[in-house]
Every structure is written in C-alpha cells, then in structure tokens.
Design goal:
- The chain is of the alpha+beta class and 148 residues long.
- It has a single domain, classed as Beta Polymerase, domain 2 (2-Layer Sandwich).
- Helix content is 41%, strand content 26%.
- The chain is built from 7 helices and 8 strands, in the order αβαβααββββαββαα.
- Helix 6 packs antiparallel against helix 7.
- The mean pLDDT is 91.
C-alpha cells in the first residue's frame, strides 16, 4: 500500500508547503492508499490552487521540476500540472482555478484530515473519477466505502 519512500516524500511536501502557507490536498491513488484502500500508488497526486502552482518550482528548486503545462480538460474546467521528482518518487501537482473540480473542495473544507495531511474525501474522489470516465477507480472506492 503506502511505502516508506512515498511517506518520506509526502512529509517533504507537507513541511515545505506548510512553511509557505500553501493549501493543498492529496488525491488519486495515493489518497486512496493513504485512506486504507488496497492499491499501490506509483506516484503522489497533489492538488493546489493555480496561483500556488506557479510557486512550486521555487519551493522545490532542489528537485527535478518540469515546466507547467495546461492539461486537456476532462470535465469543463481548465487545469495545469507540473511533475517533480522527490526522493525518486514522481509527484504530479495539479493546479486549478478556484472553481476547479478539485480545488473547490479544498477551499470549501469538504476534505478529510488524516493527521496533518488534507485528503480528498473518498466519496467525492469516486464522483470525480466517474465524471472523468475512470469507472474502475470509482467502483473500487464505492466498494471500499460499503465495507465501513
């Protein structure tokens, strides 16, 4: 599930973004694993506001950080990403405007706090996966939530 390298990288992200007062949340398969779903993430997915995405390169200047690129919209909202590598772990940082599919939940507080880590709540994560056509992930989350 959630390995030592991912945990160490997550701690680095937490510490640096907290120091710069940047709001963020964990999403994707890394969020699913962090909340107990039996899935092995190959990377970390982090959501931030677009205005904060522009600061990531400076904050993580000692890491390999890509240029920001606009993504093809999966829904009707624009999004941008950059990819960075921390401790050999790939981190996708997704930036959206304040009304974006993910960021609006971050700003509204409709998230789950797992210790110091803010996570996309699993019910909403499943809804977003379904909207973007990733029904396998949506079903995996729904089945996990039925067990509780």
């Amino acid at each position: 599930m959630f390995g030592e390298k991912l945990e160490k990288t997550l701690r680095t992200i937490l510490d640096r973004l907290k120091e710069k007062n940047i709001g963020w949340m964990l999403a994707g398969s890394s969020n699913m694993a962090f909340q107990g779903i039996n899935i092995v993430p190959r990377d970390l997915d982090v959501i931030v506001r677009f205005r904060d995405l522009k600061k990531i390169g400076e904050i993580f200047s000692d890491c390999e950080v890509s240029e920001i690129r606009e993504l093809k919209p999966l829904i009707d909202k624009p999004a941008w990403e950059l990819i960075m590598t921390i401790e050999w772990v790939e981190v996708q940082v997704l930036g959206e405007m304040d009304d974006g599919e993910h960021v609006r939940f971050l700003l509204s507080g409709k998230t789950v706090e797992m210790g110091e880590i803010v996570c996309f709540d699993l019910k909403t994560e499943a809804e977003v996966y379904a909207k973007t056509g990733r029904l396998d992930r949506a079903d995996m989350i729904k089945n996990f939530l039925k067990k509780d």
